[in-house]
Amino acid sequence: MERRIEKFSINGLTLEYSIIGEGEPIFVMHGGHSNCKEEFGYKALLEKGFSIITPSRAGYGGTSREIGKSLNTACEHYMKLLNHLNIKRVHLVAISAGGPSGIYFASKYPEVVCSLTLQSAVTKEWLTPKDKELKAARVLFRPNTEKYTWKLISFMNNIFPQFIFNQMFPLFSKLTHDEEKEMVSKEDVEAIRKMNNRQRSGYGFFIDLVQINDVSTENLQAISCPTLIMHSKHDGSVPLEHPYLAHESIPTSRLCLLDTWGHLIWLGKSSKETDEFLIKFLKAHTFCIA
User: Which end of the chain is more exposed for a tag (fewer CB within 10 A), N or C?
Assistant: First the structure.
């Protein structure tokens, strides 16, 4: 993938973004611990003639953390980026912890969003103070230590890829290891290794934990564009209550529960279905891109 990474500055703040491909634009709100170098699901979309614009969300990559002082402020800057690029309409894809950004953006700028796809997306309160995962995250991914956390993870993953895959699997899936064997492909171990080499949390993950509280049921109900909600039946990171709430609240939504092995719906032996469902949905709404 030939990726162009650039920075857009306004009022002393910087928004980093990448552009890949040519064709109808897809605007991606990447997940937690990611940035504009995200790759999951991109190959199939590029092969079908779409272009992909991925901003590093507030606090991630080279994007100023001040942009994330509120979800409203962040989305205003994402809109300014599209104006800077002279893009009038987009397909919007929001992934995992990028769900609140996608939901808020679609509800605030309906004239811009031709379609919305929520992939493994957070749509309501997620990690709470009582969750052990949050307690661990507050230590491991603090802005002043996360760099060393990811360096250690990537170092170990490059040496022991299968071992790290096995250790991380329960974070992403509710399947047992016996059930996993039937659904995991041999390429998944390598995909996880590459993911861990590009992951960084910056200030972004802590901003995500705050911004989740900025999204309400009213925002979901205000979404008027065609919406596809894609979620694995076996997601171990974001419970099924999230896609169910989105489907109940968004009038124009369709719920697609996938039989992929977990949160990373672009991996595994059933991942081809993920690409096919999304491309079919996007192609059905190409007419609205001017």
Answer: C
Residues shown for the chain: 290
pTM for the model stands at 0.95
Helix (H) or strand (E) holding 27: strand 24-29
User: Which residues, 6 or more positions from 278, have their beta carbon under 8 angstroms from its beta carbon?
Assistant: 41, 44, 45, 93, 117, 119, 228, 230
Q: How many CA atoms lie within 13 A of 50 on its CB side?
A: 28
pLDDT digits (tens, 9 = 90+) for 70-106: 999 999 999 999 999 999 999 999 999 999 999 999 9
Q: Is residue 223 part of a domain?
A: yes
CATH of the domain at 71: 3.40.50.1820
> Tell me: the pLDDT tens digits for 188-205?
999 999 999 999 999 999
Q: What is the mean pLDDT of residues 226-236?
A: 97
Catalytic residue among 34, 56, 64, 96: 96
For β-strands 227-232 and 113-119, DSSP reports them as: parallel
Fill in the amino acid letter for 16. Answer: E
Question: CA 113 to CA 7: how far, in whole Å?
Answer: 23
How many distinct structural domains can be found in the chain?
1
**Cα–Cα distance measured from residue 166 to residue 177, given in angstroms and rounded to the nearest whole number:** 8
pLDDT at 288 over 70: no
In a domain, 172, yes or no: no
What are the counts of helices (DSSP H) followed by strands (DSSP E) for the chain?
A: 12, 8
Question: Of the candidates 13, 14, 45, which has an alpha carbon nearest to the alpha carbon of residue 28?
Answer: 45
3-state secondary structure 140-176: HCCCCCHHHHHHHHHHHHHHCHHHHHHHHHHHHECCC
Domain boundaries, position 267: 3-124+204-288
Q: Verify whether residue 96 is a known catalytic residue.
A: yes
Question: Which residues have CB under 8 Å from 267's CB, separation 6+?
Answer: 40, 184, 185, 187, 188, 191, 192, 260, 261
Tell me whether residue 159 is in a domain: no
Q: What phi-psi label fits residue 30: left (phi over 0), alpha (psi between -120 and 50 degrees) or beta?
A: beta
